[in-house]
Amino acid sequence: MNIEMVDGPGGVVVLRPAGRLNMVAAPAVREAVNSIVDSGRSRIAVDLSGVDFIDSSGLGALISGLKSTRQAGGDLRIAGANDQVKLVLSLTNLERVLTPYDTVENAYGDA
Amino acid sequence: MRVMPGGDVDDSMIDGLPQPVDQAGSERGATARFIAVRILVILTLLTGTIYIVWRWGFSLNFDAWWIAIPLVMAETYALIDVFFFGFTLWRARSRPAPTTPPAGLTVDVFITTYNEDVELVRETAKAATRIRYPHRTYVLDDGDRAEMRAMADELGIGYITRGPGWQNRPLHAKAGNLNNALLQTDGEFLLILDADQNPRPQILDRTLGYFSKRTVALVQTPQEFVNVPDHDPLGSQAPLFYGPIQQGKDGWNAAFFCGSNAILRREALMQLGISRYVVELEQAVSAALAGATRVLRQARRRPEAKDPRVAAALDEIRIAVLEARRAVREHSESLGTVTYRLQQTITRVSEELVGADMALIAQDLEAIGELHTESGPDFDVLTDVGANVDALTARELSPLGALSSVQKLLRSIDVDRDDEAQPLMPLATISVTEDMATSMRLHGMGWGSVYHHETLADGLAPEDLGTMMKQRLRWAQGTIQVMLRENPLAQRGLSVPQRILYFATMWSYLSGFAALAFFAAPIIFLVGGVLPVSSTAFEFFLRFLPYLIISQLLFLVASRGLSTWRGQQYSLALFPIWIRSVTSAVANVWFGKPLGFVVTDKSGPSGRAPLRLVWPQIVVAVLLVIATIVGIVRLALGVGEPIGTAINLGWVVFDLIILSVLVHAVRYRGYGADSESDERVTA
């Protein structure tokens, strides 16, 4: 999977995975997050607008990312989820943990 | 890997060849047997109910209630067990032959090992590489051994061991081993193998087809052992369990995962892991917030809180905690948002105060550090939180310390689940037998399971009594843990039959207590002349014999002519194990005591004196013999009642025959040790 990585507003790093975020792509997302955290930055927004399908392994990668950013004192937030992704978030109840924001800008609106 | 205590059966009539799933020729016979089983189930329940109603209502000897009540309770227990057996068998049928799986599925084969010999694992790994359907093979080595890694490299297969993230965190035994590997691999399906289960080449071709049904999460195949002699002295084979019982459970969509020789769908496991993460996180955060409120309230009452700056800081945090609690309770914001904001607040307020009392905070942090090591690894994040809160409240912490301890407390159960090596634990960690707990949760989420009745792996069983007993104890303990922690009868996601069938397996492990009554009653009569049943012999046999004969017939027909005798012997003869499993699991789940868990070592003798292992049974056997002598003497002296003595002498003989299985077991020196040929596993 090709994951675009750009600097967002307020020192936030924006990750843009594209296509299917499934068990095959999940390790790449985990590694991308880890490399950002290792480089000393820990506020990450994952822009899911380019993701047309996510499975539980993909969600697992987001949770792993949440763990590593939180432990580094930062946070991981998600934005731009399409209907399929939102449905999966709701079915697994993961929306109880990760708020799906409309846009990357809104994701870190509070900070 | 689990066997109901009553499920082990003498395997002398199995020829060791794989039984095809469905043979057209035997289909009519199978249908006839299916109908016969249903008729026998109804008759057994009918005669059993008549007998037990008569026992409770019309034949209790109230003068000897202290033995009459335990005995009738034991008999009721046994009837309920038979009822569960009948319910299981009601839908026990062979499945039609599986369809050929499509090409292109991705499969990871996991071989789990902890302390098994490298050579033993090598045999299994080599067999795994010969599996025909394309796959990747991994050795999951919890022993972290260099030789094992070298062996894996040599065979060109993957090697996975625990990373640094697991240090100082609960390892969760085999469940943890599998959970660790799950996050480092990406196959759509996972074949789980114990180190001593050699897979046959067709294992995936025969099972993957079931997954074309999108709701199937699990396919379990039998566990059979090649290093067991025909008379099966240790009761290793379980053709009744890996046969009619699992087939019956399968008929109700309740076949469960037995730890090895099973294929799992990754998506189902990951989905389970995520929904458990959310559930447990919400519980942990709620509990931590409640604990934080308590710690703060206590801190506020201490003399140091008279300092206005300290008081203001504590109040600010208390308000933030209360707001967080409300948000969590009302679901108005996500847990991620709530905990993040709360931590920011706590961090800011603490930093403002840090200068004020550096020394105190340092001191308290040290105390908190000690608390962390004291609490040690535990299964349940909630007990950890509770223990930490209690410990913190009990300690004489300064208010500033309380502040940082609140922060520490919240950090430890943040959305990152710092108490665990990884936030996702798809395989259940609530029990030492993760397999049953995991499949019950999968069923609870609406996933389905399949039992495929065809031997597709050749296993090695323990070869000495000590190892066998440890293994049985572990299975029993794990099952009781699940019963106490997540009682199937109360699991909302499960169908009623699924609840009954999971509970049935747990129920069968309570047989140790019933066995005590069955051993005690004849001894008490023969020695003291006390009869728990007040009835004539005719009245008794009129109701007991039909029940006994028909239920034995049911066992005979259901087990397809195989003798269920070895299983019946062990379900009574191992009574100390079953009792210990219940008491130790209760102590563990309700009082936090360690289980005294031992990993099953199947590679050789335990080196312990076997007679010591079975001392309770020896005591019982001696008492039975003494009772026999006393009973005969009493009869000769004219004190004993002839018919009662005859019945109870017969009963004693039955008990002694049951216990005699241990004589074979104690004398057993391992497979091939006393026969001409030693055919150990060949791949």
TrEMBL record, chain A:
Family, as annotated: Belongs to the anti-sigma-factor antagonist family.
Which Gene Ontology terms cover its molecular function?
anti-sigma factor antagonist activity
Protein name as it appears in the record = Anti-sigma factor antagonist
The record's listing under Pfam families reads: STAS (PF01740)
Supply the NCBIfam families for this chain: ant_ant_sig (TIGR00377)
Going by the entry's taxonomy, the superkingdom of the source organism is recorded as: Bacteria
Q: Which InterPro entries match?
A: Anti-sigma_ant (IPR003658), STAS_dom (IPR002645), STAS_dom_sf (IPR036513)
Q: Which CDD domains match?
A: STAS_anti-anti-sigma_factors
Q: Which residues form the STAS domain?
A: 11-111
From TrEMBL, chain B:
Cellular component annotations (GO), alphabetically ordered: endomembrane system; plasma membrane
Membrane topology, as annotated, equals: Multi-pass membrane protein
Any one Gene Ontology biological process term? cellulose biosynthetic process
**Which CDD domains did the record assign?**
CESA_CelA_like
Transmembrane stretches, start-end: 35-54, 66-90, 500-528, 540-558, 570-591, 614-637, 649-668
Q: Give the superkingdom in one word.
A: Bacteria
Work out whether the entry's keyword set contains Amino-acid biosynthesis.
Answer: no
- Enumerate the InterPro entries for this protein: Cellulose_synth (IPR005150), Glycosyltr_2/OpgH_subfam (IPR050321), Nucleotide-diphossugar_trans (IPR029044)
Q: Name one GO molecular function term.
A: cellulose synthase (UDP-forming) activity
- Name of the protein: Cellulose synthase (UDP-forming)
Q: Which residues form a coiled coil?
A: none
Q: Can you say where in the cell this protein is located?
A: Endomembrane system
Question: PANTHER family in the record, alphabetically?
Answer: CELLULOSE SYNTHASE CATALYTIC SUBUNIT A [UDP-FORMING]
Q: Keywords, A to Z?
A: Glycosyltransferase, Membrane, Transferase, Transmembrane, Transmembrane helix
Q: Does the keyword Translocase apply?
A: no
